[in-house]
């Protein structure tokens, strides 16, 4: 005979915790199903290869090539990473390894505040300050371009990358730093050759989170990227991203028509990209762990 | 560094009136002692008596601790003042290496673990690096065990092997003194024995100062023993004398297990 308390405990374990555990998977699956249900019929009236390979996105003329949007998203994200990764890693190193405790706590709070700035505000900054300023500085025809959007996204991805990287650096055992210093390495050598490599898996995880943040960001890029669906490698050109397209056009479509379904397929594309990034980061992190070895697979 | 003739060796470390404070708390009290070159000196004493702190004075590792203040003088090799704030500590730490309580290999390959200290000291050719890595691994008796897997991670080694790797890593920078902070306390008895034998071999080329919790270990391997109690150096004499005819009552009480 089970006591009542025991029964309640069992119920909590079986029902509550397991349900919560499976819930995330179930929700994810339902979202995927929903996107597919709304989007997949698109290909009954439009060819998959045209969607993937066409270089123009003109819904009004019934042309749905996703390439310019994909290239726009990737270009803006690339610009964002070029700016944010070095900045974020440097600030993580400073906060974790160099700053005195008081300054460290202050900077961590500031990073959190930066992370909480709404993306619309970054959009304002882009439209009013950064865009016109870059336009003048570089003598280009418009300040609303991939560069402006990328720089703003960099500031949005910065706190994500920096705080994860900072935690990874903090998790490096003190004994490794001491070993390095005791061998006659300077503080800088210790940081660059021991602490940062030992934290590399965490730093990469942070970068990947930053990539996810940048590629999924909608409002800012919609406001400042320029909105022109073209395939270009120049960050000085106006571009249109996947997210921006969905957000801007969703309000104008008729539910259930071809355009509507095309936007859902863009959503699926975005979903696949993030999935790809997560898988890739998993592979990289795994490989580094294996090379460093002996860390019980889970690292710190 | 070439040391003087062995008949009357000049001390390699001369500690004079060393006081150390963590904030207001005085951890080391007026310590004066001399360390003879090519000897093994064991520092013993109960937990919290300041053994490790004293050891870490010799390579300035206490610099890392905030609120740590050091007074007095430690002369290295007859002329270098270790407590000189202008001293290049990276150079000092190459000459006075340190092995820690828990094996702490870097998450790098076995080769890179050894090469690390050499590389940070300056550029060396690949062939010289190879030679010095091999030399260091041979000195700790690890070469036969790992020569075919130098690219494996140093963290994949067993505890005893990892500690020998850490000793090899220290040797590779060609120090004069090797400081050891309870180097076997995290190891099993067999690995401990291997390390002790290694320490005895090291005496030929290096001066070893070892902090140990284990009095039998001190008796087995050291030439001199220093007994530290509550931050004071109670007694410092040849190990044989210390363990048979201690001059101080407190020493006798400690080594016979009456406290600590």
3D architecture notes:
- The complex is a heterodimer of chains A (300) and B (260).
- Chain A has 300 residues and is an all-alpha fold.
- Chain A has 2 domains: 2-44; 48-299, MetI-like (MetI-like fold).
- Chain A has helices spanning 4-39, 42-45, 48-53, 67-98, 101-115, 119-138, 146-170, 174-182, 187-198, 200-216, 219-224, 242-250, 258-292, and strands at 57-58, 63-64.
- In chain A, a hairpin with a 4-residue loop joins strand 1 (57-58) and strand 2 (63-64).
- Mean pLDDT of chain A is 91; it is low at 295-300.
- By secondary structure, chain B is an alpha/beta fold.
- Chain B has a single domain, classed as P-loop containing nucleotide triphosphate hydrolases (Rossmann fold, 3-Layer(aba) Sandwich).
- In chain B, 35% of the residues lie in helices and 25% in strands.
- Chain B has 10 helices and 10 strands.
- In chain B, helix 7 (189-202) links the parallel strand 7 (177-181) and strand 8 (207-211).
- In chain B, helix 3 (110-121) runs parallel beside helix 6 and helix 4 crosses helix 6 (159-171).
- The radius of gyration of chain B is 18 Å and the shape is globular.
- The N and C termini of chain B lie far apart (39 Å).
- Mean pLDDT of chain B is 92; it is low at 1-6.
- Classes of the chains: A mainly alpha (300), B alpha/beta (260).
- The A-B interface holds A 173, 175-176, 178-186, 189, 193-194, 197-198, 291-295 and B 59, 61, 64, 90-94, 97-98, 100, 102, 104, 106-108, 116-117, 120-121, 152-157, 166, 169-170, 173.
């Amino acid at each position: 005979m089970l006591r009542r308390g025991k029964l309640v405990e069992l119920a909590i374990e079986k029902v509550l915790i397991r349900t919560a555990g499976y819930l995330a998977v179930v929700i994810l699956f339902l979202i995927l199903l929903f996107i597919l249900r709304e989007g997949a019929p698109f290909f009954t009236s439009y060819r998959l290869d045209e969607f993937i390979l066409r270089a123009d996105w003109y819904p009004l003329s019934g042309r749905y090539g996703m390439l310019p949007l994909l290239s726009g998203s990737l270009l803006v994200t690339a610009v964002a990473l070029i700016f944010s990764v070095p900045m974020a890693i440097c600030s993580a190193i400073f906060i974790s390894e160099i700053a005195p405790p008081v300054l460290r706590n202050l900077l961590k709070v500031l990073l959190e505040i930066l992370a909480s700035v709404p993306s619309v505000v970054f959009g304002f900054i882009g439209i009013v300050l950064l865009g016109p300023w870059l336009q003048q500085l570089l003598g280009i025809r418009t300040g609303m371009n991939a560069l402006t959007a990328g720089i703003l996204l960099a500031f949005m991805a910065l706190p994500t990358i920096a705080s994860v990287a900072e935690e990874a650096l903090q998790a490096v055992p003190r004994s490794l730093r001491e070993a390095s210093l005791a061998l006659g390495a300077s503080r800088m050598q210790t940081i660059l050759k021991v602490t940062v490599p030992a934290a590399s898996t965490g730093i990469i995880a942070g970068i990947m989170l930053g990539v996810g943040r940048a590629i999924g960001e909608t409002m800012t890029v919609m406001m400042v990227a320029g909105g022109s669906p073209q395939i270009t490698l120049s960050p000085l050109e106006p571009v249109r991203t996947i997210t921006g397209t969905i957000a801007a056009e969703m309000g104008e479509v008729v539910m259930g028509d071809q355009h509507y379904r095309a936007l859902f397929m863009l959503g699926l594309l975005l979903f696949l990209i993030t999935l790809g990034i997560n898988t890739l980061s998993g592979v990289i992190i795994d490989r580094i762990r294996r090379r460093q070895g002996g860390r019980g697979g889970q690292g710190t | 560094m070439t040391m003087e003739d062995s008949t009357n060796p000049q001390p390699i470390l001369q500690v004079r009136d060393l006081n150390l404070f963590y904030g207001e708390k005085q951890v080391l009290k007026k310590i004066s002692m001399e360390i003879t070159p090519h000897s093994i000196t064991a520092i013993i004493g109960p937990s919290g008596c300041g053994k490790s702190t004293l050891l870490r004075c010799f390579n300035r590792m206490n610099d890392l601790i905030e609120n740590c203040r050091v007074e007095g003088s430690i002369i290295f090799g007859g002329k270098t003042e270790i407590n000189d704030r202008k001293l290049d500590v990276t150079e000092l730490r190459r000459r006075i290496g340190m092995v820690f309580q828990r094996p702490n290999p870097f998450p790098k390959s076995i080769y890179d673990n050894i090469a690390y200290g050499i590389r940070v000291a300056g550029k060396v050719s690949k062939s010289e690096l190879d030679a010095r890595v091999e030399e260091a691994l041979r000195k700790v008796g690890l070469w036969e065990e790992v020569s075919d897997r130098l690219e494996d991670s140093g963290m994949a080694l067993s505890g005893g092997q990892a500690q020998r790797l850490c000793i090899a890593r220290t040797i590779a920078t060609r120090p004069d003194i090797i400081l050891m902070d309870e180097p076997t306390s995290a190891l099993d008895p067999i690995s401990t024995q291997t390390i002790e034998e290694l320490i005895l071999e090291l005496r030929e080329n290096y001066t070893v100062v070892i902090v140990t919790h284990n009095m039998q270990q001190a008796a087995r391997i050291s030439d001199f023993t220093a007994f530290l109690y509550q931050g004071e150096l109670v007694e410092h004499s040849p190990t044989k004398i210390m363990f048979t005819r201690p001059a101080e009552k407190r020493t006798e009480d400690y080594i016979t297990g009456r406290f600590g």
